[in-house]
Design brief:
153 residues, alpha+beta, six-stranded antiparallel β-sheet, two-stranded antiparallel sheet
Length: 153
């Protein structure tokens, strides 16, 4: 399985790719109608695998300052620039799958996979961010519900 790239066409391919159970990775269908999918993880080990398999130009989002899920948006599905609505939806998912879930607001890193790296000795789930934009997102229960409703695989 080494060397295969993340494919978003079929959920089963994603699970086979990482050789992890369905509880480890959560492919999230894009709630915005541009035909792409986002991928998020459920554990530090799964986040490492997800980030390692992502292409260098894929979008990577993560909450700033606390633990949480990594969200990957495959760039080949959105073109050169991801729509702002898609970035916002991915940021909401990153916040929802973090310790800031109850606050329903927070700051999120938004960057390409090429701008993060795993240094030797770093624990699972921890990545060094070399360059990123930040996005402050505050959302309502209705926005979260709409994002999650559109996010069912």
């Amino acid at each position: 399985m080494v060397g295969r790239r993340l494919r978003s066409e079929a959920v089963s391919d994603l699970f086979d790719l990482f050789q992890l159970g369905k509880d480890e990775l959560d492919p999230v269908k894009n709630p915005v109608s541009c035909g792409s999918k986002m991928f998020t993880d459920r554990s530090p080990v799964a986040s490492d695998e997800l980030c390692k398999q992502a292409k260098s130009n894929d979008y990577w989002l993560h909450v700033i300052g606390t633990t949480g899920s990594h969200v990957i948006i495959p760039a080949r599905r959105v073109g050169s620039e991801a729509p702002p609505a898609l970035i916002r939806a991915a940021a909401i998912l990153a916040l929802h799958h973090s310790k800031l879930r109850a606050d329903q607001r927070g700051e999120v890193y938004v960057t390409r996979r090429q701008h993060i790296r795993k240094r030797k000795g770093m624990p699972p789930g921890l990545w060094q961010v070399d360059q990123a934009d930040t996005l402050f997102v505050a959302y309502t229960d209705d926005e979260l519900a709409a994002t999650l409703a559109g996010a069912q695989p």
